[in-house]
Amino acid sequence: MQNDDFLTATSMALRTILHLPDPRLRRQAAPVTEVTPAIRQLIADMAATMYAAPGVGLAAIQVDEPVRVVVIDVSEERNALLVLINPEIIATDGEQTLEEGCLSVPGIYEPVTRAAHVKIRARDRDGAPFELAADGLLATCIQHEIDHLDGRLFVDRLSRLKQGRIRKKLEKQSRLAM
Amino acid sequence: MTQVGAHNRYLDAALEEVVGARPVPARAAALIQELSYGVLRWYHQLAAVARLLLEKPLGPKDRDVEALLLVGLYQLRHMRVARHAAVSETVAAAARLRKPWGKNLINACLREYLRHPERAQREIENNPAAALSHPAWLLEELRRSWPREWEAVARANNERPPLVLRVNLRKNSRAEYLARLAAAGLDAAPTTLSDAGVILPQPAPVGRLPGFADGCVSVQDEAAQLAAILLDARPGERVLDACAAPGGKAAHILERAPGPAELMALEADPARAGLIGQNLARLGLKALVVVGDAGAAQSWWDGRPFDRILLDAPCSATGVIRRHPDIKLRRQPADIPRLIQAQARLLDGLWPLLRRGGKLLYVTCSILPGENEDQLRAFRDRRPDAAESALTGGWGRARALGRQTLPGERGMDGFYYGCLKKS
């Protein structure tokens, strides 16, 4: 299995996930020009961090690396890792509303409306370009992660009223944590 | 020209698109730049002359013919071009618009102008908006704001500004850079207020400036260089530059030794935030560049207060018209109250982020009191924990709160600075 080869090829470390409202989540991630050993290590760490969380997707910026790298796994079995380097949406179609959550916004789940079908262009973990058409949860997840690369979080897409409520809830959580 | 006039586009962006898109010889690019800046600088005067020459005004579809007529008049009035050449070149250009009537019209108008220049002169003298080449509403604003200085301000707005540079003191001293300019055959002198500034009376393209690509130097007016100097960030401090794009002031804060511990450069527009990163990279500097709205801190602020905040607020840009003559066409009277409201919102949004004892430096490149001292006084009066922190120095003129430079004074752009301290 390609996934297993990949995941066992390097040692992995869990990275710390930044939480809203950390300003580092609001950076714009820079494109990857070359898949260096450091990028491979980052991908391995991100996959491990995502599976441990657990989550269905993670963007590098969430672990304080402002580069355009995303890992996604929406499978039930947690064995279908998708790595996207420099992903770009080239076409969208339709609309769907799914409940979203985010490892950087713990404990918050809200419905978000996004395109139902997306076509993307990206590079894989070896730097080879490919295109991918997605719908359902994968389409939502891809759009959610690409937002991260531009410093955007899913809560930005909610009403002001909801954003205010979420802010209060997060403030309460962080007070309890202290 | 049609793009700036009819579509409210930024001049430099439209020029970049037209000139940058196809290979244009350097000399032609320089001429295009001279014509576009010149026509916009003198637009209100040239348009008044054109109205006189045209028997009936041209419709919105024929803005291209009108623009070309203004280009012809500009050459005749402001450039050292032989008269017959100016007329024949403009008429030849009109032929390419595929409006044969336009060609004849431009030919007739320019020749009529040459036969009776005194008629145009009379028209200009009887109309202050044409004489000073400003929209009437803006002249009125200037007159109300500066009853003694308004005419001098309007004239200074029509002057070509000097090229002012900011030497990156992390990479070279000002004396070293002045020597490099002299070696490159460029005339330059040190500025008096900024310790990093260099002024070139003759503008030169950035590409000719030694060490520009290597980050030895940046282009920035001396009045804008006062921001980092007045902010006076100290080691160990956490500094926020709100509305930071394109990053000139943020870079200057970091170039000043020994510099703050941490600088966050905030910008609401993601595309413009990208410019900050590019500029800092060229200069070899690092800051945390954050995409966010300074008036809505909850989405990006981690709750750690700032020691210093620089708010370079969006404004009418009425202090930098000599550098951006398109402002005279793009700015509308209704923009001013909207800008004042936006500035107040930013002040209110940023103040809670400042630690007690910290300072907020408010900056605009406007010369309208409503955006400047009136704005800051109203803020101070509604915040019991805000007090003025006096800005000293023999520059500009003292206002009820803060200080103001006017365009052209000591060679500088028109900037306002006011500083508030939190108790």
Automatic annotation (TrEMBL), chain B:
What InterPro entries would the database entry show?
Answer: MeTrfase_RsmB-F_NOP2_cat, MeTrfase_RsmB-F_NOP2_dom, NusB-like_sf, NusB_RsmB_TIM44, RCMT, rRNA_ssu_MeTfrase_B, RsmB-like_ferredoxin, RsmB/NOL1/NOP2-like_CS
Q: In what residue span(s) does the SAM-dependent MTase RsmB/NOP-type domain sit?
A: 153-423
Gene Ontology molecular functions: RNA binding; rRNA (cytosine-C5-)-methyltransferase activity
Q: Which Gene3D superfamilies match?
A: Helix hairpin bin, NusB-like, Sun protein, domain 3, Vaccinia Virus protein VP39
Biological processes per GO annotation = regulation of DNA-templated transcription; rRNA base methylation
Q: Where is the active site?
A: 365
According to its record, what are the GO cellular component terms? cytosol
Q: Which family does it belong to?
A: Belongs to the class I-like SAM-binding methyltransferase superfamily. RsmB/NOP family.
Q: What is the protein name given in its UniProt record?
A: 16S rRNA (cytosine(967)-C(5))-methyltransferase
Lineage, broadest ranks: Bacteria, Pseudomonadati, Pseudomonadota, Candidatus Muproteobacteria
